[in-house]
Amino acid sequence: MFLKSQFFVCLGLLAIGRAIADSSAPTGWLEGRLRVVFLRGVDTGDEMPRRTVAPGSYAEYPLIVLTADRKQQVARLIPDDSGRYRAAVQPGNYVIDVQDRVRKRLEVSAQPFTIAANQTAHVDITVITGLLDPGSAQ
């Protein structure tokens, strides 16, 4: 009976050790900066108000990391008050994009990137907003 209980204890410790080893698989880092550009009409003078991004409003543009085939979302990132983001990602090929960009009428080019183990990939994203609805242009 004693041998049987020791066997199960060893089996349990082996399972825990394997889980810890699997969770410590090498990762890489994705970092970058989100830049938001607002389109505006023709400048008629220096008094034209220019829209800037208020601190905290970068959260209105959450970023998503997708597998290279764009079929599975791997991560969702919220940029900080200065538009910077950073996340740990498993090694592989990915694409970063802005969530709901079509619905929000944002012009963004999804950026492909590769993460290598224990390396940092730097990917900046530019969002162009303020696009007119096709029916509103006169």
CATH fold-type name of the domain at 26-41 and 50-129: Immunoglobulin-like
Quickly count the helices: 1
CATH architecture label name of the domain at 26-41 and 50-129 = Sandwich
- Spatial shape: globular
| Radius of gyration, whole Å | 23 Å
Intertermini distance: 87 Å
The CATH superfamily label of the domain at 26-41 and 50-129 reads: Immunoglobulins
Major sheet description: 4 strands, mixed
The CATH class of the domain at 26-41 and 50-129 is Mainly Beta
SSE layout and pairing:
Elements: H1 2-23, E1 28-38, E2 63-67, E3 73-77, E4 84-89, E5 92-98, E6 111-115, E7 120-122, E8 125-129
Parallel strand pairs: 1-7, 1-8
Antiparallel strand pairs: 1-4, 2-3, 2-5, 5-6
Overview of this structure, please?
The structure is a single chain. The protein is an alpha/beta fold and 138 residues long. The chain has a domain at 26-41 and 50-129: Immunoglobulin-like (Sandwich), CATH 2.60.40. It is built from one helix and eight strands. The chain has one helix spanning 2-23; strands at 28-38, 63-67, 73-77, 84-89, 92-98, 111-115, 120-122, 125-129.
State the gist of this model:
This protein is an alpha/beta fold and about 140 residues long.
Please name the defining characteristics of this protein.
8 strands, alpha/beta, disordered C terminus, Immunoglobulin-like, 4-stranded antiparallel beta sheet, single chain, 4-stranded mixed beta sheet, 1 helix
